[in-house]
Design brief:
With 127 residues, the chain is an all-alpha fold. The chain contains 5 helices and no strands.
Length: 127
């Protein structure tokens, strides 16, 4: 869902949904069996982060931008955890999310994070 929304810029209903990470929380209205995480779920969280940082960058209202930014930050922290466990697969994704967040915040570190993400992807044979 998030991958499709990000790639095709079709955002209807995406912001209103709970999100993938919320499905892991016990108080979630969506019940999920406690099984090991599947790689596609992890990639979905990555796209969720990209999507919410992108939407935050486009948002003019400060309150809504903060909400979108916080949802992107949740995805970033989730991917950061897996980046520490498996850097060859997730480091480039974590750095790309950091670059997206830095861009929303207007940081002067944005380009550095993008360069690090590219280098990590190249070093780990993501081409």
């Amino acid at each position: 869902n998030y991958m499709r929304a990000f790639l095709f810029h079709s955002f209807d209903g995406v912001v209103e949904s709970e999100g993938l990470i919320a499905r892991l929380e016990p108080q979630s209205s969506v019940r999920v069996e406690r099984t090991p995480l599947r790689p596609l779920f992890l990639i979905g969280v990555f796209y969720e982060g990209l999507l919410f940082f992108h939407l935050a960058r486009l948002q003019q209202h400060q309150d809504q931008q903060q909400h979108l930014l916080s949802r992107g930050n949740r995805a970033l922290e989730f991917i950061k955890f897996y980046s520490n466990l498996n850097p060859s697969t997730f480091e480039n994704k974590y750095l790309l999310l950091e670059a997206s967040r830095a861009e929303v915040l207007g940081s002067d570190q944005t380009e550095l994070y993008y360069q690090k993400a590219i280098k990590s992807a190249h070093d780990n044979k993501f081409q």
